[in-house]
């Protein structure tokens, strides 16, 4: 999280923090493990009232940012979600709300209003089944047929697809990219629940079997939506990064406290140099994680030419060092750290999930390599 | 505390009519392109490579002194030093703008660390008015090159355990002892020296700091040959060196107060607002761009394994930049303590090691045997042998981990046997 916030941002962040401290308690998170949606409707509506889904939406469409930098403000919410391992489909609802405001507020006013007040859920589908999980490699086909588009293929994992009234789906049309907004109950769409490492996030495999939608369902140009899809992807990466840093922050604080309280051989763990040095490493990863996450968020928000590279650098770094930090926190706790009773696994689950979504570290390293070698070729 | 103490921790801030950064940048942009040659290709490549003769080295030092003088005459030297001492009295943002404009051009690299930071920074923090006037303008003109007489052969990390002795004799001090790991002392002018002035008090309370000319009869400079053949590091032997009391910096026996600040400046390294260095060039040795050059030269840039390594090196590079920026902002605004500089030191050291290993890995068998025709790959193997320099030089990463865990995180201090004991009673190993 940024070192200095405006008083308005501080107030905003604090409201979400207090709300999550009260509502996303460890007891509640454990209870939600067995709930089909992984969150309560009332909780989500109250979160929406706090501004969780309005930050990427233009003011004239009922949204608005706190600081003028909506994505930066949203990163504060995502950071708090990480700090509390909070339930709720934060990333997909915001991506869709932002896209609606950008491209479809006139046609989908009701859906946007529902996302803003928390009564509707929509999800965003980008990743696909193996072997097509790599970024920039879409197999789902969106074919033009007269005044209709025909969709064939599979998206997975799609977050909260079982709850979503609409899905925003990216696919290929010939050599170009297209995305469509489609109601989940359209004929030919089937949703298959998946299992996941997280206790409160829910994912599904969504199959499209020659699903026909009117050509107006296209968001952006048919065959020319790559830029818009990339922009949404970068927003998702920024949110996942902030959430990972928040989870690292809480886990590190818990583990540091444990090191002071836990005694063995008559002295606290915190007094052993071997462990102190590992805490120093973890603190360094944590600060580096904050730094690159914030720098990437600002670059994406500002539309900087470096945004793609910085977002990938942040995602690759946090995917690798976020999970490394959490696993080392588990190690510091010993056996208790692997039990369901202890809370550390909430954060381990969250950083593990976020590492896999929106590009793994190796996928983002490949992206970075492409950017720097292309850049050199162009120079 | 000298009258310079009030400046401590803050760069000059002038009231009123400071030139705005944009106009300063525009002036710098024009001047740099009209007056400085493009950087020699691969000039900063590799790890402390031994690729010039002594004569060439001395020529280069002389050239850099002239470059520094050019900067001074044009009003671009000591951007964050007060005008009273030959600086420009501008802000870190001005220095940053200058550094960004400087990318791709020659600059006086040998005058930056340790001359301008930590040495000149320490003089600015603790020097008397006379001392500052005597040395800071001379440094900024390129007339004085400084070395840190800090580490000793008896112990690298235990800086406060210095055994070089300074004994008072009227208005002078008599120094005896040895210092080591001074880079380029054989072509330098002055040493900033930490010495023991009191052996009857615990180690931190019996130190003082002195300034002394290196070229004088009592100072013998030996060059140390490193495993790759470079002879830039030196060891000095001081025998009955006389230093006037007016060349003492800070109070008698209070040298550790100076020393703490000194090592802060050292850890800040190229993030110091005092240092002029092309932006993007701050991480000497093997960087992400040399990894890309090696990958291209190897013809393996299309190999997914190599691309993964190229991506990793670049990721670490961008993250290091972001971290240094966060730490600089945090320390400047007071949200983070000065001890947080150790976080940057640890991270950049570890990243540098990893990046070096990546370049070596991509080089393949050419890392073990090569010719001068191998371009970017040439000497990759020697660089790998010197890899650990980035986690040893400037304070080991083990010390940085101690500082982070104890001073930043507040974990219990390591037990030591030299605390609260007169230094003369502290157990010491055999002298090497």
What spatial order of strands do you see in the largest sheet of chain A? 2-3-7-6
CATH superfamily name of the largest domain in chain A?
Butyryl-CoA Dehydrogenase, subunit A, domain 3
Mean pLDDT of chain B: 90
Strand numbers in spatial order across the main sheet of chain B: 1-4-5-8
CATH architecture of the largest domain in chain A: Up-down Bundle
Amount of beta strand of chain B: 5-15%
The CATH architecture category of the largest domain in chain B equals: Beta Barrel
Strand content of chain A: 15-25%
Tell me the number of structural domains of chain B. 2
Structural class of chain B: alpha+beta
Q: Please give the number of β-strands of chain A.
A: 9
Please write the CATH class name of the largest domain in chain B.
Mainly Beta
* End-to-end C-alpha gap of chain B: 36 Å
Radius of gyration of chain B: 22 Å
Indicate the percent of residues in helices of chain B.
40-55%
Please summarize the sheet with the most strands of chain B: 4 strands, mixed
* CATH topology assignment of the largest domain in chain A: Butyryl-CoA Dehydrogenase, subunit A, domain 3
**Structural class computed from helices and strand pairing of chain A:** alpha+beta
Q: Sketch the topology of chain A as an H/E string, one letter per element.
A: HHHHHHEEEEEEEHEEHHHH
- The radius of gyration over CA of chain A amounts to 21 Å
Describe this structure in words.
The complex is a heterodimer of chains A (379) and B (432). Chain A is an alpha+beta fold. Chain A has three domains: 7-120, Orthogonal Bundle (Butyryl-Coa Dehydrogenase, subunit A, domain 1), CATH 1.10.540; 123-217, Beta Barrel (Butyryl-CoA Dehydrogenase, subunit A, domain 2); 226-378, Up-down Bundle (Butyryl-CoA Dehydrogenase, subunit A, domain 3), CATH 1.20.140. In chain A, 52% of the residues lie in helices and 15% in strands. Chain A has helices spanning 7-23, 26-32, 41-49, 70-84, 90-104, 109-117, 226-261, 273-302, 307-333, 344-356, 361-378; strands at 122-125, 141-145, 148-159, 166-173, 176-183, 189-193, 203-214, 263-264, 267-268. A four-stranded antiparallel sheet of chain A has the order 2-3-7-6, with no helix packed on it. In chain A, strands 1-4-5 form a three-stranded mixed sheet, covered by helices on one side. In chain A, helix 4 runs parallel beside helix 7. Chain A is globular. The two termini of chain A are 35 Å apart. The relative contact order of chain A is 0.11. The mean pLDDT of chain A is 96. Chain B is α+β, with helices and mostly antiparallel strands. Chain B has two domains: 1-279, Butyryl-CoA Dehydrogenase, subunit A, domain 2 (Beta Barrel); 283-408, Butyryl-CoA Dehydrogenase, subunit A, domain 3. Chain B is 40% helix and 12% strand. Chain B has twelve helices and eight strands. In chain B, a hairpin with a 2-residue loop joins strand 2 (165-169) and strand 3 (172-183). In chain B, helix 4 packs antiparallel against helix 6. Classes of the chains: A alpha+beta (379), B alpha+beta (432). At the A-B interface, helix 7, helix 8, helix 9 and helix 11 of A face helix 7, helix 8, helix 9 and helix 12 of B.
